[in-house]
Amino acid sequence: MGPQDIYHFVVDWVYYFANNFHRNLFHMFDDMNTTRYIRLIACVGAYLLARPYLVKLGEKISQKELEKQNKAKDPYDAATKEKGDKKKIEPNALRGGGKSVSFEEVEKEEDDEGEASGFQWGKKAKQRARKEAEKKLAAQEKVLQDDDIMEHLVDYEPGQDGW
Q1: Residue ranges per domain, the chain?
Q2: How far is CA 99 from CA 21, 94, 95, in A?
Q3: Which range is most confident: 108-112, 113-117, 134-138?
């Protein structure tokens, strides 16, 4: 088998596919009768009606497979398998670290806002409460300033025209 045979094989192959493409493109509806047209329309209509349901089915199946893959990789599941109790899991076990780190509280901030029941606020909660109180004070001051400005801008006396 020489190079000329390979050349003829490739040329014949290209000619065969070009001929099929031309025939299928231009002569596909030559032998169609009304029964075949009705069958074609029914097939296309069934596809258009069934496609959304098939897509949803595919999404559900792929979602289940994805959850199955993620469940195997979930550090929470891996950490709870070791201990057997989901309530006793530590945050470091979720992060993948085996070490346990604890910090000593160096400075304790005491506020007079504490309740008598012994409830203690965390640092973030105190900051949020302070910010809310500052926002309320700023809003009240703005309203007071607006009232003062309006009072000075308009010299109004009851019963008199201000202009």
Answers
A1: 3-73, 121-155
A2: 67, 11, 10
A3: 134-138
